[in-house]
Write a structure and sequence with these properties.
The protein has 252 residues and is an alpha/beta fold. It has eleven helices and eleven strands. A hairpin with a 4-residue loop joins β5 and β6. This is Nickel pincer cofactor biosynthesis protein LarB.
Length: 252
């Protein structure tokens, strides 16, 4: 894999000045850390601008903890998604400097320690039942260093609630719109703003909602242009994609 020349030069200078040991330099040049049950991508931040994110669902608390230990040797930012309270408690016992966000089921580097972007994104959700997905999106973006404005419970059943905030929403660079039921909020917002929309369907709804499939299909068929649809309950994807756009704007 090709590497940033400045990274190599800085590493060699560090070894020359005895600020970095040879073993540490070798570790930083490694492509991944072999843990047996996982291969931790150590160069993802160099390739993509953000370190590997840990998906907590399906992993044991011990595995999550070991992955965090591997990542902290190379990256300053940690993000664990879909981690329940029991696993989070175990992780925080070993890494007390991290934060647990119970609504979103996320463990992360403390939000207040991360420098935020000048531009902001808007996270909107239709109802309180969508909060878990909305917070997953919002916190993902914040851990990436993105300024976030939240607009919750602004669904179409009381559309005046959205209009009270539309001026602020329009000033953002991206909107992440999260909704269950028929998913109409994404189409409404798409017709009111001039920036990209990421629509995230949730599994919230009665029987014919089919655990979010109806919402997904409705959002895919939205007539408002500029809307991209993510998978059901994928708040992480919405927040991450929106964060990438802001980083592109501010790095150019």
């Amino acid at each position: 894999m090709s590497k940033d020349p400045n990274f190599i030069v800085d590493l060699l200078e560090g070894v020359k000045s005895n600020q970095i040991s040879i073993d540490e330099a070798k570790a930083q040049l490694s492509h991944y850390d072999e843990l047996g049950f996982a291969k931790i991508d150590l160069h993802r931040a160099k390739r993509q601008g953000f370190p590997e994110v840990i998906f907590g669902e399906g992993k044991t608390k011990e595995q999550i903890n070991q992955i965090i230990e591997s990542l902290t040797h190379h990256d300053n930012v940690i993000l664990v998604t879909r981690i329940d309270e029991t696993k989070a408690k175990f992780v925080l016992e070993h890494h007390p400097y991290l934060q647990y966000h119970s609504v979103a089921n996320i463990v992360s580097t403390p939000i207040e320690e991360i420098k935020k972007s000048q531009n902001y994104i808007s996270i909107l959700c239709a109802g309180t039942s969508d909060l878990a997905v909305a917070e997953e999106a919002a916190l993902t973006a914040e851990v990436m260093g993105i300024q976030v404005k939240r607009f919750y419970d602004v669904g179409v059943s009381g559309i005046h609630r959205l209009f009270n905030h539309i001026h602020v929403i329009r000033q953002g660079k991206v909107s992440v719109v999260i909704a269950g039921m028929e998913g109409a909020l994404a189409s409404v917002v798409g017709g009111l703003v001039d920036h990209p929309i990421y629509a995230v369907p949730t599994s919230v709804g009665y029987g014919a909602n089919l655990d979010g499939v109806t919402t997904l299909l409705s959002m895919i068929n939205a007539c408002a242009p500029g809307t991209s649809v993510l998978n059901i309950d994928n708040g992480f994807g919405g927040g991450y994609n929106a964060g990438m756009i802001v980083k592109m704007i501010e790095n150019n």
